[in-house]
């Protein structure tokens, strides 16, 4: 039997291919020093622009990044968005390699992927795994809209938040984060990063509409549904109000049950979010509610969500 050279083994070729992807992608991955001890990672997104996971930045000034060639340079925070966990840094006058762009919407559960990070000592770090599950657009618990739900098959090692996620073509489909779903590594898709980064570079923040209410879903009695001819038996109970927020100024009270926004049911949080697109800021929103067993309507002028406010 004729022996086969170990160099021509499919496993050796596969391993060498992975190493080449990591090396190529790693040229556009940096270490971000924006917190104590372990740095996070970041990805060169445009000329002079790096994106990273916003939750890893614990300060706004004095941020530095370590490049693939070992240089450490200062970076300026252009803006951050907690809703999507994206932060943008400017590196003026620094010429860096841009990784090949990929499309996160082409990913399927079971696809093999590589996470590429950079450590404190400028070494390239890599981790491999599978795409655990893929879904459509979704809204994070902080109110940010992601273009796709892409869950990795495990958690992320320290320093891998902000890392590049590459497919088997060596194309970067987005950045990794551990902050959007507890205990699970998630992908922030490239389309989401592009959209949010553009707004942060232009305005320094992401404008989001809000009413200034905290709510919880509740079931409505059948008598109320019949009496008010409601399309749904679900509503949103107002359990908190932002002081001097849009809802409070419009006369909404704690204990009211929201049932419609612009004539459409709002028995779930997603339906409330759907009515609050960024284009609605400054516009009147017709709200129907139940108070004391009676149906009332009011107009709420939609406000812009304060950057650190937890109300919707």
Automatic annotation (TrEMBL):
Biological processes, Gene Ontology terms: proteolysis
Highest taxon of the lineage: Bacteria
Lineage summary: Bacteria, Pseudomonadati, Pseudomonadota, Betaproteobacteria, Burkholderiales
Example GO molecular function: serine-type endopeptidase activity
Segment forming the signal sequence: none
Keyword Protease: yes
The protein, known as: Serine protease, S1-C subfamily, contains C-terminal PDZ domain
Entry keyword set: Hydrolase, Protease
Protein's organism: Caballeronia arationis
């Amino acid at each position: 039997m004729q022996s086969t050279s170990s160099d021509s083994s499919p496993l050796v070729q596969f391993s060498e291919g992975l190493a080449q992807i990591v090396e190529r992608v790693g040229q556009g991955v940096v270490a971000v020093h924006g917190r104590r001890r372990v740095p996070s990672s970041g990805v060169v997104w445009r000329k002079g622009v790096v994106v990273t996971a916003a939750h890893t930045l614990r300060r706004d000034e004095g941020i530095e990044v370590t490049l693939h060639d070992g240089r450490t340079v200062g970076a300026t925070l252009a803006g951050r968005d907690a809703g999507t966990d994206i932060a943008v840094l400017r590196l003026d006058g620094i010429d860096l390699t841009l990784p090949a762009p990929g499309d996160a919407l082409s990913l399927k559960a079971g696809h093999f992927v590589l996470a590429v990070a950079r450590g404190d000592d400028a070494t390239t770090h890599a981790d491999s795994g599978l795409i655990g599950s893929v879904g459509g657009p979704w809204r994070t618990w902080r109110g940010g809209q992601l273009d796709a739900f892409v869950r990795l098959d495990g958690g992320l090692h320290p320093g891998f938040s902000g890392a590049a996620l590459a497919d088997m073509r060596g194309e970067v489909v987005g950045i990794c984060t551990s902050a959007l779903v507890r205990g699970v590594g998630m992908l922030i898709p490239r389309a989401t990063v592009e959209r949010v980064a553009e707004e942060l570079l232009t305005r320094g923040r992401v404008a989001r509409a809000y009413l200034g209410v905290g709510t919880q879903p509740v079931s409505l009695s059948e008598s109320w549904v019949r009496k008010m001819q409601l399309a749904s038996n679900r509503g949103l109970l107002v359990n908190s109000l932002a002081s001097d927020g849009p809802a409070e100024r419009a006369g909404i009270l704690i204990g009211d049950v929201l049932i419609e926004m612009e004539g459409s049911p709002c028995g779930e949080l997603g339906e409330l979010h759907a009515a609050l697109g960024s284009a609605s800021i400054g516009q009147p929103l017709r709200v129907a509610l139940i108070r004391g067993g009676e149906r009332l309507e009011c107009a709420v002028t939609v406000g812009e969500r304060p950057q650190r406010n937890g109300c919707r």
